[in-house]
């Protein structure tokens, strides 16, 4: 036994072991290069831009955290945050409720119909978000959509689903339709991993289907539910594509600062305020990180984390 073994508590690295380590780095090197070029460097550059302010008279000047102070007192940014928070309070429970019920129902089916049903429920997620939003904008149209045709048959005026008082529910419906199938697949996969012997023991003890679902299935997939909730929370805070697509047909119901991401897009590409747009983007990123961290911390027991 060598001195290195006695001091370190483990055998020294062999030449073959070092060679295998280098092979590992060679395999991951292409990903690391792309990750650095297209994510790390742009993020560092965007953060650097957020510390400056560009004006016509004074040029670009270093302002430190002044832009961040301005961002967290900006009524347009705070209004967008409040709006996505309201969407989260409605959309996340609705998406997860629909996904959970569908997964529990499909888990009890053992016929070929269950495979067709799983595929049908998952199909909306496979449709690109832009195409899905465009499709729903046609369905919502009070002039040439299906609702307009049906109501015209009875000589009535079709409801305007894109009006200011209805646009909230219209967007909630689109997002729920788009994502419930994906969350259902995640929950369904967790349900299928449960040992069937547990269900048999529950039936012997006299538990019915509802009691089995509430007292056995849902508690045993708590970690998967936490993961799905985290995805839904992050996705809601980054709400962007659906309101952007519907904005052109919503007749003023959706403004340029409807969500924080839309506000960033408007600042950067409509007003060329790239410094402040970077600040808003990083401010939103900070909020997403803090919100996700707090949620994971509060649900660490359910998710199996310590």
In short:
This protein is mostly helical and 306 residues long. It is 74% helix and 3% strand.
The CATH topology of the largest domain is given as MetI-like fold
Q: Give the overall shape, derived from the CA principal axes.
A: globular
Unreliable stretches (pLDDT < 50, length at least 5) are: 1-8
Task: Return the CATH class of the largest domain.
Answer: Mainly Alpha
Helix content: over 70%
For the biggest β-sheet, the strand order reads: 1-2
How many helix segments? 15
Mean pLDDT over the residues: 86
Structural class based on helices, strands and sheet pairing: mainly alpha
Query: How many β-strand stretches?
Result: 2
Q: How does CATH name the architecture of the largest domain? A: Orthogonal Bundle
Rg result: 26 Å
Give your account of this protein's structure.
- It is a single chain.
- With 306 residues, the chain is mainly α.
- It has 2 domains: 14-62, no CATH class; 67-303, MetI-like fold, CATH 1.10.3720.10.
- The protein has 15 helices and 2 strands.
- The chain has helices spanning 3-8, 15-50, 66-71, 75-108, 112-126, 129-140, 146-153, 167-192, 196-204, 209-220, 222-237, 241-247, 260-269, 274-298, 300-303, and strands spanning 52-55, 59-62.
- It has a two-stranded antiparallel ribbon with strand order 1-2.
- Helix 2 (15-50) packs across helix 14 (274-298).
- The protein starts with a helix and ends with a helix.
- 26% of the residues are buried.
- Residues 1-8 have low confidence and may be disordered.
């Amino acid at each position: 036994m060598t001195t290195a073994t006695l001091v370190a508590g483990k055998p020294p690295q062999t030449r073959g072991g070092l060679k295998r380590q280098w092979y590992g780095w060679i395999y991951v090197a292409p990903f690391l290069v792309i990750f650095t070029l297209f994510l790390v460097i742009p993020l560092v550059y965007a953060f650097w831009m957020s510390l400056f302010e560009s004006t016509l008279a004074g040029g670009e000047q270093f302002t430190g955290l002044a832009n961040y102070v301005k961002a967290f007192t900006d009524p347009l940014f705070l209004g967008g945050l409040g709006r996505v928070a309201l969407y989260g309070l409605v959309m996340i429970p609705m998406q997860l409720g629909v996904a959970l019920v569908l997964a529990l129902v499909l888990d009890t089916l053992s016929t070929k119909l269950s495979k067709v049903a799983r595929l049908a429920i998952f199909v909306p997620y496979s449709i690109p978000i832009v195409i899905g939003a465009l499709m729903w904008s046609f369905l919502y149209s009070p002039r040439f959509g299906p609702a307009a045709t049906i109501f015209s048959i009875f000589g009535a005026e079709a409801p305007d689903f894109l009006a200011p008082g209805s646009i909230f529910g219209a967007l909630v419906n689109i997002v729920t339709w788009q994502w419930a199938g994906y969350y259902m697949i995640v929950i369904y996969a967790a349900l299928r991993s449960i040992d069937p012997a547990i269900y048999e023991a529950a039936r012997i003890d006299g538990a019915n289907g509802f009691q089995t679902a509430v007292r056995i299935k849902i508690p045993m997939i708590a970690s998967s539910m936490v993961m799905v909730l985290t995805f839904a929370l992050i996705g809601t805070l980054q709400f962007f594509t659906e309101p952007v697509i519907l904005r052109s047909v919503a007749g003023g119901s959706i403004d340029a600062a409807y969500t924080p991401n839309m506000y960033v897009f408007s600042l950067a590409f409509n007003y060329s305020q790239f410094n402040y747009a970077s600040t808003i983007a990083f401010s939103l990123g900070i909020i997403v990180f803090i919100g996700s961290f707090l949620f994971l911390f509060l649900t660490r027991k359910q998710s199996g984390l310590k």
